[in-house]
Amino acid sequence: MVWTESLPSVTLIIPLWPRAEPILAERTSMQTIQSFRSLIEFAIEEEKRAQALYARMSRSAEDPFVKSILEGLHEQEREHEKKLLSLLSSIKT
Q1: With b meaning 16 or more CB within 10 Å and e meaning fewer, what string describes 36-47?
Q2: How confident is the model at residue 23 (pLDDT cuts 50, 70, 90)?
Q3: Rounded distance, CA 78 to CA 32, Å?
Q4: Of the candidates 64, 79, 88, 92, which lies 20 to 30 Å from 30 by C-alpha distance?
Q5: Rounded distance between C-alpha atoms, residue 39 and residue 31, angstroms
Q6: Cα 26 from Cα 59, distance rounded (Å)
């Protein structure tokens, strides 16, 4: 069983079983590369939004344990952003 989402020039095929790696089936064209770039750029913006949310929540958290968890989530989002930026820089246009 798989979940499939089609974008104008990219089809994501994501198996729906545990520990399965998503498969990216893409058509080879400049449009595909630009669509993939757009997808990664969108994901980077979402990571930044999540970072801001966790930072804001951690500043207002009174419980030290909750504050620590939120700070950890903020750091995870920063790492996700770094990975996406690295991926973005590797895409040849």
Answers
A1: beebbeebbeeb
A2: very low
A3: 27
A4: 79
A5: 12
A6: 42
Q: What pTM did the predictor assign?
A: 0.62
Q: Which residue has the tokens 């996406």?
A: 84
Q: Is the dihedral of CA 38, 44, 47, 48 positive or negative?
A: negative
3-state SS, 7-57, equals CCCEEEEEECCCCCCCEEEECCCHHHHHHHHHHHHHHHHHHHHHHHHHHHH
Please compute the mean of the pLDDT values over residues 26-34 and round it to a whole number: 61
Name residue, tokens 């990664």: 40
β-bridge mates for residue 23, sequence order: 13
> Helix, strand, or coil here: 61?
coil
